[in-house]
User: Fold this.
Amino acid sequence: MRVLADLHTHTVASGHAYSTVAELAASAAAKGLELIAVTDHGPGCPGGAHPYHFWNLKALPSVLGGVRLLKGVETNLVDSDNGLDLPDEILAQLDYVAVGFHPAGGFDDGDAGRNTRALVRVMENPLVDAVTHPGNGHYPVDVHEVVEAAVRHRVALELNDWTFSGTSSRTQFAEGELEVARLAKAAGAKVVVGSDAHFHLHVGRFDAALAAAEAAGLTEDDVVNTTADRVLAHLLEKRERPRLDAGGEW
Assistant:
């Protein structure tokens, strides 16, 4: 399987990543990628970007160096009105909204029931497109409930390459991430493969995740981001997006 779109990348705006948008795009172009989503951490993550950062993502071009750019976020689960660290008014302006558990969000106590309820609640939000590293055992959930919610609400579940890298703090939970992928396959939930790049040379690094996808029995039909066209079609089918169209210009 070949994946030509990376839907999980970070810039210096995340506070603990080390490249610019231009560097991410150049690295993606050099690797033959068609599309990347810039998904910096929301303000609920230590060092995360200010809400105004996401409001002003319209300043970025839609295509850079021949690579389509989606203006997105990896928002964090927190105790707020919508359960996330950005309001719906800002999320609705973005092209791509991923959600995940991260430190200091109020879910570090390992309560699987509470985590599951919080995650399923935000997955019900039609603005949410994907869940990042759903098998992360630092924040245990009932994976069966999460997969069922993913099918109901058309939320994709990520296979995160960094989890399988061997050097990640989540590597010990790689089997849990693989189990989510197996359950997604059985239930018909969609999957996205993401690099979780925090440095531009890691954009499009999918080898470990693709090996896991094969082990889980996933095919190209199960994976949303094999091409840019498939990504755009999937996103536009789910909901209207004010700055996104399949033609490539905003």
